[in-house]
Amino acid sequence: MPEPAHVRGTITDSEHIGLKRAAEFTRTGSAYALEHATRPSTIGFALASSPIALLSWIGEKFLDWTDDDPSLDTILEQAPSFILFTPGNIGAHENPQWYVKKPLGFSWFPKEIAPIPQAWVATTGNLEFYREHQRVSFPLPETFIGGHKFCAWILTYACKGGHFAAIEQTDQLLKDIEGFVQQVWKAHG
To answer: What are phi and psi of 137, to 5 degrees?
Structure first.
């Protein structure tokens, strides 16, 4: 998603890191999208000619776009649903026709291939729920061992998740969906 013209709000450190990852993905990993957009028949015929070609195309995305490589069984279970996959509308914030007027929720996972900052998501619709999943740490209390003072940090929530968060972080995404529904229900019930 290109940066919207009229953004309100700040971008977090995690979102800045995500934008750098998105720029790298655009540079090295998005040619497939250009192929789909400009020569859909060419890639369509190639992928339709062989189930192995289609599976390797889809499997590559699972291996490249996830935080941890999914098992072969997971890829084989999920591949059929991507045969009917239709990409989203890139740059929807630029066209008022695509603005989501109903309550919109968004979950941000740390290893998404092209993560969108909250301030940018807000330009695409009525954003009422946003949850950023990130690695969080906190200091442990000072400890004295043998007369020496030690200070340490502990990682309390090592969040994971990439482009396929529904597969990688099923429970966490479900909590987000439940939280969104509860919040919207309470506000608009």
So the answer is: -135, 160
Whether the full predicted model's pTM is greater than 0.70, yes or no, is no
CA dist., res. 51 & res. 55, Å (int): 6
In which residue are the tokens 């971008």 written?
11
CA dihedral 88, 177, 104, 110 (to 10 degrees): -60
User: Quick one: tokens of 115?
Assistant: 């993560």
The one-letter amino acid code at 173 reads L
Q: What are the structure tokens assigned to 135, written together?
A: 């690695």
- The pLDDT averaged over each successive group of 10 residues in the chain (189 residues) is 78 86 88 80 79 85 88 85 51 65 89 87 89 66 52 50 87 91 88
Q: How many CB atoms lie within 10 A of CB 120?
A: 21
Query: Cα–Cα–Cα angle for 62, 110, 100, nearest 5°?
Result: 90
Tokens at 57, concatenated: 């195309």
